[in-house]
Amino acid sequence: MRGSPRTRPAKPALSRDSIIAAALDLVDEFGSDAVTMRRVATAVDTSPGALYVYVSDRRELMALVHDRAVADVELPTDADGPWRTRLELLVQRTVDALAAHADIAAVGLTDLAPGPHSLRIIEEILRLLRMGGVDDKACAWAVDLFGQYIASSALEGGRRSRAAPPHHGVSAADHPTMRALAPLLTSGDPAARAAWKLRVLVDGILAQPPSGELQAV
């Protein structure tokens, strides 16, 4: 017997937050490409058309989902150390937050506008770079580089367990250097490798000349 309107559980109220949360759950389970407006609508028990009251299209929804993924990233404080330590800690926390949600980091490689949570992180990265003496033009270019690093590192972290070694199936005759370095290509603790990459990135930014000497390629 079907429940009467009085006994049937109340349908959860539809909201932008509930739509974003449902989409993020779908990303976690199936990956970003599998998230469609129809699938999200099914998850929140509504029609696809009802979603457009809250988001303009799938692109906007995925940008909001990406922003939600970094909502809980904690900004380092003075207690965490000098500016560089805090910068590296913030970048790694952002990488970890995105890597926890399948391939949502790929959205960060698109031209979609960042949301408020992402802007909070960008603001702090810029502030810390200026604190470290990086001039304004280099800061502006560096934050773009950090965004690419964060997205690619998060994608790598999310897929590492499923990826084959880079030398897998490679012929020693055709790729002798790769075969010679094979033991090193996947060696080392992932955290140590990540710290090394980030350290090299920051070192490179600090080694650049003043912005007046930077030339567009």
Notable traits:
globular, 10 helices, Arc Repressor Mutant, subunit A, 217 residues, mainly alpha
Q: What's the gist of this structure?
A:
By secondary structure, this protein is mainly α. Helices cover 56% and strands 0% of the residues.
Describe the structure.
- With 217 residues, this protein is mostly helical.
- The protein folds into 2 domains: 16-69, Arc Repressor Mutant, subunit A (Orthogonal Bundle); 78-161 and 190-207, Tetracycline Repressor, domain 2.
- The protein has 10 helices and no strands.
- Helix 6 packs across helix 7 (136-159).
- The chain is globular.
- The protein starts with 15 loop residues before the first helix and ends in an 11-residue tail after the last helix.
- The relative contact order is 0.10.
- The mean pLDDT is 89.
SSE blueprint and pairings:
Layout: H1 16-30, H2 37-43, H3 48-51, H4 58-69, H5 83-99, H6 116-131, H7 136-159, H8 176-180, H9 182-185, H10 190-206
Helix pairs in contact: 1-2, 1-4, 5-6, 5-7, 5-10, 6-7, 7-10
The name of the CATH topology of the largest domain is Tetracycline Repressor, domain 2
CATH class of the largest domain: Mainly Alpha
Name given to the CATH architecture of the largest domain:
Orthogonal Bundle
CATH-level-4 superfamily name of the largest domain: Tetracycline Repressor, domain 2
Separation of the first and last Cα atoms: 72 Å
Shape verdict: globular
Count the strands?
A: 0
Q: What is the count of helical runs?
A: 10
* Helix/strand/pairing category: mainly alpha
Order of helices and strands: HHHHHHHHHH
Beta-strand residue fraction: under 5%
Portion in helices: 55-70%
Low-confidence segments, given as residue ranges, are none
Q: What is the CA-atom radius of gyration, in angstroms?
A: 22 Å
